Amino acid sequence: MLPEPGAELVIALHACLRAGVTAVALDPRMPAPPTELPEGADTVLLTSGTTAEPRPVALSARHHEASARALGERLGLGPGDRWLCALPTWHVGGMAIVVRAAVFAATVVVHERFEAARVRGELASGGITHVSLVSTMLRRLEPLQAPALEALLLGGGPIPAQQLEGDLPVVPTYGMTETASAVATGTPGEPLAGVELRIAADGEILVRGPMVAAEGWLNTGDRGSIDEEGRLTVDGRLGDTIITGGEKVAPARVEAALETHPAVAEAGVVGLPDPEWGEVVTAFVVGEAAEADLLAHVRESLAPHEVPKVVRFVGVLPRNQAGKLLRSDLRRLESPPR
């Protein structure tokens, strides 16, 4: 029997680590947990599965502690802090909060699931100093009052510019399951202590460090660039790149342009097969914008080949429990009549 998400799972995690038993973190709502799991690990977590099936990743206690110390020291975390965990505790982002709080003797407040009203109230009460969210969650919390908040970690994908421009102490983060959570913070991203970054010839981000579950350099599958000061800019997933008429399109860039329209709540972009173009830039949009107006709006900031050729209006975008866009599901999404 799987522990319920929340405090019960946290207790089970610490018990497994103390007993030397491998803790396998699974979503209790998964219809069929994986049968083949890595051996010899302290913990096994599944990747988000945003572009393919979730994949098990083996992490040691050393990986978790290195990640916790690097980010905790970056943020100045200490015993007086209270971290709200509204991310799933079977996801690396949620588990990292639990470990981080233990390493720095901070308090962690665990919510069994993300409920916007409950999180909004908890933050407004003034008892929370730190919280980790994805941009979709933050959007659902607006307007947000958080008088005691020192850091709002925001990760899991592209962050709309407007979420960085408000009064909240937003700290953009970049990381993944294979790195036991964050490896860089800020815009552009400054690597955490002990983290090394480099860019491969094809633009892929490579990372290594004490929190990375790989021998040598880890191929992240993400595309990005590093400036002269060693700071990282992430441009999206390599596998998400759309090739249309021989031109490359980054879906995250198109999504960001669409979401600047005042009538658009959120957008997801993928390439769908097309006999003439190879792939066509296809936008799934939640909102009430007129298609012609929306396309005219994005032409102001996008190159002609980046402008969606197909726009489908939907009621909701497919996301996982951590709020990340599931592009694999998006490609199969049928658009209902508007």
Write structural notes for this entry.
It is built from 8 helices and 19 strands. With 338 residues, it is an alpha/beta fold. The chain folds into 2 domains: 7-237, ANL, N-terminal domain (Rossmann fold, 3-Layer(aba) Sandwich), CATH 3.40.50; 241-330, ANL, C-terminal domain (GMP Synthetase, Chain A, domain 3), CATH 3.30.300. Helix 2 (61-75) packs across helix 3. It starts with 6 loop residues before the first helix and ends in an 8-residue tail after the last helix.
Low-confidence stretches: none
CATH architectural arrangement of the largest domain: 3-Layer(aba) Sandwich
| Distance separating the two termini | 43 Å
* Helix and strand composition category: alpha/beta
**Approximate shape:** globular
Helix content: 10-25%
State the CATH topology of the largest domain: Rossmann fold
Please state the CA-atom Rg, rounded to the nearest Å: 20 Å
Strand content range = 25-35%
Count structural domains: 2
* Strand line-up in the sheet with most strands: 5-4-6-7-8-9-10
Sheet of most strands: 7 strands, mixed
Number of strands: 19
CATH class of the largest domain: Alpha Beta
CATH superfamily of the largest domain: ANL, N-terminal domain
What is the fold's blueprint, element by element?
Layout: H1 7-19, E1 23-24, E2 43-46, E3 56-59, H2 61-75, E4 82-85, H3 92-103, E5 107-110, H4 116-124, E6 130-134, H5 135-141, E7 151-155, E8 170-176, E9 181-185, E10 190-191, E11 196-199, E12 204-208, E13 218-226, E14 232-237, E15 242-244, E16 247-249, H6 251-258, E17 264-274, E18 278-287, H7 291-298, E19 310-313, H8 327-330
